[in-house]
Amino acid sequence: MSQEAPAKSTDPNKLVVRNIGLLLSGDLDQPILDADTVVAVDGVIHAVGKEKEIDTSGATTTIDAKGTALAPGLIDSHVHPVCGDWTPRQNQLGWIDSCLHGGVTTMVSAGEVHTPGRPKDIVGLKAMAIFAQRAFQAFRPGGVKVYAGAPVLEQGMVEDDFKELAAAGVKFLGEVGLGSVKDGITGRRMVAWARKYGIQSTIHTGGPSIPGSSLIDKDMVLETDADVVGHINGGHTALPDDQIVALCERSPRALEIVHNGNERAGLLALRTAKNGKQLHRVILGTDSPAGSGVQPLGILRMISMLSSLGEIPAEVAICLATGNTAKMRSLNCGLIAAGREATFVFLDTAQQSAGKNLLDSIQKGDLAGIGMVITDGAVSIHRSRNTPPATRVPEVVKQ
Ligand SMILES: [Zn+2]
Questions:
Q1: Collapsing DSSP states into helix, strand and coil, what is residue 383?
Q2: How many A from CA of 112 to the centre of ligand 1?
Q3: I want to staple 347 with a disulfide (CB 3.0 to 4.6 A). Which of 20, 136, 259, 368 is the partner?
Q4: What separation in Å is there between the alpha carbon of 301 and the centre of ligand 1?
Q5: Is the Cβ–Cβ distance between 127 and 119 less than 8 Å?
Q6: Which strand (E) or helix (H) includes residue 317?
Q7: Cα 202 to the center of its chain, rounded Å
Q8: Residue 133 confidence class, pLDDT cut points 50, 70, 90
Q9: pTM of the model
């Protein structure tokens, strides 16, 4: 049997998503948009609005959202990938693909620190970072974008190392404190070099995560001044409450709450940030894979936990996992707005939830059901195999 090759075409790939019941923008300033239609061209959002006001003609793919909610794909601000879709931490395959079924479409590496035999000499750590950056740029499990290649600071690194890493495409540092740099003065100097060349930084906050790592307290976090206060709620062991409050109040940087942390401390950080009108700095991660395993629904669980126990509206909690992270980490995803990546998750009330609707169900602590995920304008998955089943699911009506 022969199959005709598709005609070569330079026509744009036009995606129309219509009949959206609730448009969750990811933007903390306006989390819900009065819109029912999104149009994307070649993987980039082109228009957001009411169907009758938007040009939906010439669609190559049309999706009927069936009244479900559309949100930006979720971002996990803190993962520890190693190679491909394998993690040696729990010797598990397919963990990134499993997270896609939890709505995560973008991940940021906080260091490939679980790599067996991880090189700690400077040439070796640079080579590993560049390898990971290249490999994950070319390999997207299920469509998930993994920003990897996050070197861990070691004693002896000089300014030229950061210049070289940046020129090679490295954009993030692994958690400060996981290598041999364990004092604020050295950390601050290296983080400043990284920043000078456009490389973002994160610092481990709290007690040791596994045997061999060590305590990083608020003084070192403040002195180092990394761009992200990594797992402010500990990974797992949190700092004392007064230190968490001090970090929220005195650091101007992103405040990252993780699933694999102390949940009570996470709620304390959220409330402190909220009371100080600093919610825009709160971002979410899982810090997985870890000793606690892999959490395919970790970001969804954080959204429900922070909304229900932290008493913030569900649409605001979703911003913490989307637009906030995108803004704090300079990513072009995370918002439903023209010019952003057309990467979406379709959510609906989980079947039999006691919630009146999607947002109410999240505020009551239930998880949302995922009916479809789109990455860069193309359908990655239909109904999630991991979430509780969504009541309604979108449908591709034209392809
Ligand atoms: Zn950590």
A1: coil
A2: 12
A3: 368
A4: 19
A5: yes
A6: helix 314-320
A7: 14
A8: very high
A9: 0.96
